[in-house]
What we know:
Oligomer: heterodimer
Distance between the termini of chain B: 85 Å
Order of helices and strands of chain B: HHHHHHHHH
Low-confidence stretches of chain B: none
Distance between the termini of chain A: 35 Å
Mean pLDDT of chain B: 83
Number of helices of chain B: 9
Structural class of chain A: mainly alpha
Radius of gyration of chain A: 21 Å
Low-confidence stretches of chain A: none
CATH superfamily of the domain at 1-82 in chain B: NADH-ubiquinone/plastoquinone oxidoreductase chain 6, subunit NuoJ
Shape of chain A: globular
CATH class of the domain at 1-82 in chain B: Mainly Alpha
Largest sheet of chain A: none
Strand content of chain A: under 5%
CATH architecture of the domain at 1-82 in chain B: Up-down Bundle
Strand content of chain B: under 5%
CATH topology of the domain at 1-82 in chain B: Four Helix Bundle (Hemerythrin (Met), subunit A)
Amino acid sequence: MEQFLGWTDNPILLVLLSLGQILLVTVVLLLAIAFLLYFDRKVLAGTMLRKGPNVVGPFGLFQSFADFGKFVLKEMIIPAGANKTVFMIAPILATTLSLICWAVVPIAPGWVVSDLNVGVLYLLAMSSLGVYGVIMAGWASNSKYPFLGGLRSAAQMVSYEVSIGFVLVTVILLSGSMNLTTIVESQTGGFWNWYAFKLPTIIVMFPMMVIFFISALAETNRPPFDLPEAESELVAGYQVEYSGTPFLLIYLGEQIAITLMCAMTSVLFLGGWHSPVGDLGLFDENTLAGLLGTGTFESLIGAFWFALKVTFVFFMFAFVRALVPRYRYDQLMRLGWKIFLPTSLVAVLLISGFVVYTNAAAA
Amino acid sequence: MEVIAFSILSAIVLIAAFCVIAARNPVHSVLFLILAFFTSSGLLVLIGAEFLAMLLIVVYVGAVAVLFLFVVMMLDVDFVELKQGFLNYAPFGGVVALVFFAEIALVASAMGASRPETFDASPNAETNVEAIGQVMYTDYLLLFQISGIVLLIAMIGAIVLTLRHRPGVRRQSVEEQTGRKRADAVELKDVRPGQGI
């Protein structure tokens, strides 16, 4: 959103402007998540030949809002033995930490709250903080199942962060930048330029995208890696003792983290706001776009493609949930440490070799 | 603007650092320590060293402090016993604090004379990632590689210390598990009523 920043130097106005941007991103994100949740349940229902939510509103579209109302109106119960302060901070932390990640996600050309130079690292740092919400919730509940769930989740998130980090390094090497906007801009012009499909490196990068996707499933505690909240063993894991609004916050934090992972997949591997077939000369002077003011129109189209890609990756998340049975915990750890970590390390070696070779050939 | 942000952040760091030693519950201490780490990365952002700030969060908050929290949460802490030893350790702790303070004062007074007026977080480069990379892979290459080897040795040492082969442990062979066919696992029997197998 830097295009709006030029017209004033007044610090108070600038602060108000960025507050407005933050509010806008948050509201749009929360609305989108309301409908993504509905979509998630519909996909699950469709796979199981059920109807899914279909009562509230047309086709059940307003189900999430009804759920929201229910959670807010319910009583908030704090267990007697719980550590009250930490118990209440944990859900707030979970939601806040997953929301602030969205500050660096480029939605369309120029549409980003904070265009950080170290955007990728920022995302890595903030998503590694996400583990604290879970661990604090598990410990503060002062109860066995939440504690076990919290420990499981912490170990799982820390393990899969490592391979996510290495996958990120391959993309950083290819684009030569840690700025997410630059990473998206380097994938311009058709799907054959996206990092998942770009030609010589597709042999390495497509598997990297798959690894990133699976690690994202584990990182966000989604099925088939939802062991921290395995109903059959731990009731509901670290969220057993939560009710009412704190539960809503924990749940919301998880959903925002999932959507963030979808957004990261589309930014890093699927070309972010770029259309799959190049821009087709839509933004020339003499077309409709020229009449509407090229920049804004281009941004709107970009935001549309971005939303479409995020929805597609989210559909994959929902589909995996419906199709794959839950992993055993030792299998999960084996997959993370013994398969993904060595594979992504080798990929980092291959990609850096490729980058050095092509740079030397070009120079 | 920056002065206000600096004052707020450093006040939070100091208060959090004080609470680390003042908090009665060790888990609260670790949580305050995390707050102190996080806020000091905010201070690094203020002077323009975003790369170091993010690394501080990833390494210390995201990995080291999680392990601290793990260990402390598992401990069965007896608060009365913790307080009893306080007077015995107080003089020694005081000496350590004094030495530490003296060292910092010495370094600060030596720095004060030669400190430049303005600070450039990324000299000779556009971003400070590039600046750090240029210094690290040219002037300090040997030290960088040596520290890598030290870390590798530490990792192998940790594995050697904790890896024990105990007899009588049933291990799971993943190849065997995934390589199982239906014919090996299921056998169909025609059971007649009243006879059994």
